[in-house]
Amino acid sequence: MNRTGARIDTHARGRLAAQLKGIVQRLHRDGEVPQTTLAVGDLLDVAQGLQQQELARLSTARLAERARRLQSALARLHDGEYGVCVECNGPIAPKRLRALPDTTTCVACQERLERVGPR
User: Which structural domain range is residue 30 located in?
Assistant: First the structure.
């Protein structure tokens, strides 16, 4: 690998690791927040409590999925496959990787996937 490639990998690894660390810290912090207890009371209060619990669960699930994708990106980086489209095996543009560091597809393949679905 040339020096530029090594520098890109180092920057990518740092960005991926920092994002993953932030998500893991947030998941741990959010996991310690006590859930709203549902006492007998106003129906609106009960509904709001249920809604808050559901939003917290959805947020946690979304963060956990993002953490999984970042871990996968770090594994691809380690294996020398980071920045290679899983659909066409072509390169993923550096700008796309900076914007979406856990992406697995190039722009052209992502557009095709959104139109027709996976192969």
Answer: 1-81
* C-alpha to C-alpha distance for 24 and 71, rounded to whole angstroms: 11
Tally the C-alpha atoms within 13 A of residue 114's C-alpha that lie toward its C-beta. Answer: 7
Report whether 12 contacts 77 (CB < 8 A): yes
Query: Residues 53-94: pLDDT tens digits?
Result: 888 888 889 999 999 999 999 999 999 999 999 999 999 999
Query: The tokens of 115 are what?
Result: 């139109």
Q: Which two tokens stand for residue 78?
A: 């380690």
Write down the pTM of the prediction. Answer: 0.63
| Res 41: pLDDT | 58
- 88 in the same domain as 74: no
Does residue 23 sit in the same domain as residue 70?
A: yes
Plot region of 80 (φ>0 → left; ψ -120 to 50 → alpha; else → beta): left
Looking at the fold, whether 40 and 91 belong to one and the same domain comes out as no
Comparison of pLDDT for 95 and 44, the residue scoring more: 95
**Do 61 and 9 belong together in one domain?**
yes
